[in-house]
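request received
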Amino acid sequence: MQDPVIQAQNLSLTFQTNDGPVHALKDVDLTIEKGDFVSFIGPSGCGKTTFLRCIAALEKPTAGSLTVNGLTPEEARRNRAYGYVFQHAGLYPWRTIGGNIRLPLEIMGYAKSDMADRVQHVLKLVDLEGFEKKFPWQLSGGMQQRASIARALAFDADILLMDEPFGALDEIVRDHLNEQLLKLWAKTGKTVGFVTHSIPEAVYLSTKIVVMSPRPGRITDVIESTLPRERPLDLRETPEFLALSHRVREGLRAGHSYD
Amino acid sequence: MRNLLPILTVLGGIVLLWYLAVAPMNIRVALDQAERAGSTITPEGSVERRSVSVFRLMADNSEHVRAAYALDRPRLPTPAQVGAELWKTTGDMALKGRAFSNRSLIYHAWITLQSTLWGFALGMAVGILGAVAIVYSRVADMSLMPWAIISQTIPIVALAPMIIVVSSQLGIEGRGVPKAIISAYLCFFPVLVGMVKGLRAPDPSQLDLLKTYDASGLQSFLKLRLPASLPFLFTSLKIGIAAALVGTIVGELPTGAVSGLGARILIGDQFGAPLAIWSALFAAAILAGLLVTLLDLTQRVALGRMEGRA
Ligand SMILES: Nc1ncnc2c1ncn2[C@@H]1O[C@H](COP(=O)(O)OP(=O)(O)O)[C@@H](O)[C@H]1O
Ligand SMILES: [Mg+2]
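response:
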């Protein structure tokens, strides 16, 4: 068996604030295998973002160990191990969609000709062909978020970290993007870490659902999905889907009764 | 075009108020002149009239109010007089092929413009470099910023003669260099403040995104902070160039300067030629307007182009 892509052991992170210490993560153990689609779900403040940021080496854990591709998160970042998608698309208004997707490629020093090919390739993946020369203000919110996903896919990272990427979008657009994201995952074989607030979204997308609860931020349940890899939207009405949703909801409720 | 109407309305209002103010401002001088020319004025004698309000004088000597609008050396010239003087010292001179003679405001405006542009360039460089230092270094933030603020609390009129004296002591010939320094002194501050704000404009998530690419400090400056700061930069440049012009004129005021709009204002004052003061003042305002408009157009074109809106 392969080494896990992400492995956290006894991972803790305490923020020292003016109001005293905040235990954003406490004794988190989690293993993510290659090709997993892992959703993190839980109420606000349970440390979902913090965990993702630790993987991305944007925060430094205060205790425990964390490896990404067998390396420290900093080393993994230097190897360009992951692409990160934030809640807000955050496209540069002064760059075209193509220019925004080229941004990481320019920074990482890709060759000009290679860049053009990659931009075309990822635009196709997120269904934005023909929008290369448009500016962000000319695109809808959903399209902008797709462009920001394309930006994270443009370089050869085999991990994709997404922090509530569809949180600000309406339900219909969200359904559509979820379906596309699954296709994309199947096509690229990437390992995905996905933060969400929505139970159906988590169940629909994931091979593994991590239920978290706050104060201190911790994992209360890890649910291996029994759903097939091929997932049409109407899968969400099957008893199996509802049973999984029920288990997630129970996990969330149990987490809450602690405080 | 839509914007023109409100502007013209305000302008019309100002001109109207101006014309209304001319009569009370000039009536005493007009009555003195009329009296000397043999007219009967109530009350008689310049000294007598001092205790009477100008409105009373205008009411009692209404036939002489007209004269207040046509004095050679009015306290307050009419817009038409200022306009005529402006034309005489600019367009008319240019038509006669003497645009750069000593008596032409075009020449004096050119002198002032040169210093302004040098001061602007210097102030812009200091402001931008200072802002970069402040944004990238906590030490600079804590040490430079307070001094930048203190520097602006010192009245420039007090500082200007000192800068001129010091630079002549250092053997710098002419007024050009000290004028540019005074001008830069006023100009750098808005540029500095605007640029600090602009360079700090990107939000943390945008900086985090660059971190995830393992971008270097220089890369995040060139790809994110600098382009994000441009709208702020242009806004402060517009304030900066107006400040640079004021600085140059202040630098031309201390005795000794013979050319430049500031010198014209000073000389007009010394020789009791209000029309010369007013026309130099308007030349300065027109120059400021042109410079700011030029920057504004550049801003619109550049930023519009940048975001694909133009
Ligand atoms: N930079 C920080 N400084 C102090 N406290 C923080 C910081 N970032 C997050 N926190 C705190 O850590 C906890 C977990 O936050 P977060 O990971 O953002 O939660 P989630 O993404 O699940 O809503 C919260 O209580 C939050 O207030
Ligand atoms: Mg969050």
